[in-house]
Design brief:
Elements (H helix, E strand, L loop, with lengths): L1 H14 L3 H9 L4 H14 L3 H9 L4 H7 L19 H22 L1
Helix pairs in contact: 3-4
């Protein structure tokens, strides 16, 4: 499916993961937004996806999973799933900068 391929390509590029990782998450029944949340939390927290999914599978919502790792989902500026304005690179750079700032604040608080 062309639409699926486009979404997989966007997520692999944005998060630097393999297409298999994205398609495996999709095969678990996760929507594109859930996959984005999982990848963002995994990357921001520096935790393997398996650990993030364990928390989610235990019944925690995405916000609680993020809080478990010391941040809020709203702290991250997540680019839209569909990039219709052609500004994907700018959004990814902004997202990366937000993550760097978040990690610096987390380290400062330790």
């Amino acid at each position: 499916n062309k639409g699926t391929r486009k979404q997989v390509d966007k997520l692999t590029t944005e998060f630097g993961v393999s297409a298999k990782e994205v398609t495996d998450l999709r095969a678990r029944g996760m929507g594109w937004g859930e996959i984005r949340h999982a990848l963002a939390i995994s990357r921001a927290a520096g935790q393997p996806m398996t650990e993030v999914l364990k928390l989610r599978d235990s019944g925690m919502g995405w916000g609680k999973v993020a809080k478990h790792y010391g941040f809020k989902m709203g702290d991250m500026d997540r680019p839209q799933v569909l990039d219709t304005d052609g500004a994907g690179d700018d959004k990814r750079n902004h997202f990366h900068n937000c993550l760097v700032t978040l990690v610096k604040h987390m380290r400062h608080d330790l």
